[in-house]
Predict the 3D structure of the following.
Amino acid sequence: MNFLYLFNGEYRQAPNQLDLVFEQWFGVDYLRVGETLLELSLKPIACALISFSDNKWSKEISKCMSLNAPNGLIIDAGALSQTKIIQSQNNKNLILTPHPGEAGSLLGISAEEVQLNREHSAIAIAEKYDASVVVLKGFNTLVYIKSEDKTFICENGGPELATGGTGDILAGIISALLAQNLPLKESCLLAVASHAKAGENFVEDVGEIGLNASSLIPMVRKILNK
């Protein structure tokens, strides 16, 4: 099985080890790449996390994605800009995890307008994109559960989490919990709570400045194992 990957604008042959990673973790059957993406087939998997950059490569891949992920499909980061792809997923357990800027783009308004009424914005996103859960990140991260028409607000965490990559960690925690067959609501609430608590623990141990996103992972693991 051969894979090509994009590096500094050039397609390169992936090593066998990367082939194995693709097979085991992403369920990829085959991938042929030329100047544009030609084919992409995905096996049914428990859950999936899509978190692309907003670039040509990501857009080409997203056009070919149709994921069967019964436990949950999480769309995060640059993938949130692919609104047509989001609306075409038809996944009963769709989770969107925008920050205020991304939420504004999803609704066609400014981030400032989102912040004026965060709960209303989260509900509007869920309705517009038929999302089961919307996790609106930021101060007092908000989780809206559409099936219950309920909003949960996390009062933990603070500015230490306002650094690049921490949102990716949160999306990863949600997907990890879903993959272990934890229900949708519990996965999202537990992920948000443990993520925020890990940030607070970092402040207590080190201080508010200097959090590296990957440092959250062992802290979250320790919290979840208590």
Q: What stands out?
A: The longest helix spans residues 184-205. The chain has two domains: 1-43, 44-224. The radius of gyration is 18 Å. The chain has a mean pLDDT of 79.
